[in-house]
Amino acid sequence: MSDYSSHRRKALDAFRHHALDEVDSTNQACLQLARSGDPGLIWITAERQTGGRGRRGRPWSSDRGNLYASLLLIEPAPLEHVASLPLAVALAVHDAIRAVLPLDAPPLEIKWPNDVLIGRAKTSGILLESERTPDGRQAIVIGIGINIVAKPSDTPYATACLSQHGAAVDPSQLFAHLFATMAEALALWDQGRGISKIIDRWRQHACGIGEKITVNLPDRSISGIFSGIDDKGLLLLDRGSLGTMPIAAGDVFFEPDGPRKE
């Protein structure tokens, strides 16, 4: 076995996996493990969720046939570096989906910060939740839902599922890819020390650089040109005479008549 293969095997062996048939939320199951003292690096997957949720408390459709997975991390990085973690997670999801999509599928891209799109339609959702455990440890749960055979229709954006683009894969097969790509992405991220490498790779798959976008913030919506991300992973919004505005969090929507990236 080569040194690379040995290192990769060791990295994968650090993670555990607990598969469930049904659960209210895989994120919630991970948080319960954290509260009970679990050391982390454990995946929880479920065939179905009864209370799946997305960002800002939105419900996440969780019928059978799609992938629902959450990973528990304990003290994954100093707090000042945690903000870059979603970029690494997005790369892991992107690479897992890339592994099962046919080569002639529409473009597979990442919309800031961590939505993975097929042909500009959202095919996955990622929700990171953080909590301080009773014994003082910082727990972070990475929740991931990937549309394999079904997709929601009541959304303000286009959605896609893998099967409509020729991917013949079941949740367990897709999770096997995600298990590996996440270990690799987290190793590259290296508790935040590898953020520059993550950002370089993220930019290679970025959706919409140079296009007009609208960013919905909690209190307002602002528009401008998406100029990429800075060295910390913040979105850069070019507002013309108003200058370039860095944005740490928000929902991004592309303008239908905006210029397309070459």
Automatic annotation (TrEMBL):
<dbReference type="Pfam" id="PF02237">
    <property type="entry name" value="BPL_C"/>
</dbReference>
<dbReference type="InterPro" id="IPR004143">
    <property type="entry name" value="BPL_LPL_catalytic"/>
</dbReference>
<dbReference type="InterPro" id="IPR003142">
    <property type="entry name" value="BPL_C"/>
</dbReference>
<dbReference type="GO" id="GO:0005737">
    <property type="term" value="C:cytoplasm"/>
</dbReference>
<dbReference type="GO" id="GO:0004077">
    <property type="term" value="F:biotin--[biotin carboxyl-carrier protein] ligase activity"/>
</dbReference>
<dbReference type="InterPro" id="IPR045864">
    <property type="entry name" value="aa-tRNA-synth_II/BPL/LPL"/>
</dbReference>
<feature type="domain" description="BPL/LPL catalytic">
    <location>
        <begin position="13"/>
        <end position="190"/>
    </location>
</feature>
<protein>
    <recommendedName>
        <fullName>biotin--[biotin carboxyl-carrier protein] ligase</fullName>
        <ecNumber>6.3.4.15</ecNumber>
    </recommendedName>
</protein>
<dbReference type="InterPro" id="IPR004408">
    <property type="entry name" value="Biotin_CoA_COase_ligase"/>
</dbReference>
<dbReference type="Pfam" id="PF03099">
    <property type="entry name" value="BPL_LplA_LipB"/>
</dbReference>
<keyword id="KW-0092">Biotin</keyword>
<keyword id="KW-0436">Ligase</keyword>
